[in-house]
Amino acid sequence: MTKTKPAPHRVKMHVKKGDTIQVISGKDKGKVGEVLRTIPSHSQVVVKGVNIRTKHVKPRQEGESGQISSYEAPIHSSKVMLYSTKEKIASRICYTVTDDGRKVRMLKKTGEIID
Q1: Would you say residue 115 lies in a domain?
Q2: Which UniProt keywords apply?
Q3: Predicted confidence (pLDDT) per residue in 16-37, tens digit
Q4: In the chain, what is the straight-line distance between the N-terminal and C-terminal CA atoms, in Å?
Q5: Domain presence at residue 107
């Protein structure tokens, strides 16, 4: 019998859905895109226009033709950095507290507040 691997524990991620990021390693290095979905249990993110895979879909009904569809596959979150669209530069983040007491994410290189 084969055992299934238990899901790894949830890890806090530095990116959220809707963030603009830049890929820093791999075949899509340098590409900029928006985070469509995060998968914290595996520390992965799905980014628009990055890691495109093709899938061959069989016809479901008789007379219908098969298709080749493409989709974005997840990549590891350590391969991405947050990207400043104003300064056109990727940066690490730090957490700061604003004057009104909110904890926000800030880009280290530019000082730009993200959320």
Answers
A1: no
A2: Ribonucleoprotein, Ribosomal protein, RNA-binding, rRNA-binding
A3: 999 999 999 999 999 999 999 9
A4: 48
A5: no
The domain in which residue 35 lies consists of 20-90
Is the full-model pTM beyond 0.85? no
Q: What pLDDT is attached to residue 4?
A: 74
- The residue count of the chain comes to 115
Task: Report if residue 5 sits inside a domain.
Answer: no
The contacts found for 82-87 with CB under 8 angstroms, 24 or more apart, are: 82/14, 82/15, 82/19, 82/20, 82/21, 82/22, 82/107, 82/114, 83/20, 83/21, 83/22, 83/32, 84/109, 84/110, 84/112, 85/20, 86/110, 86/112, 87/112
Residue 61 located in a structural domain = yes
Report how many domains make up the chain: 1
Q: Give the whole-angstrom CA distance, residue 100 versus residue 1.
A: 57
pLDDT in tens, 35-74: 999 999 999 999 999 999 999 999 988 888 999 999 999 9
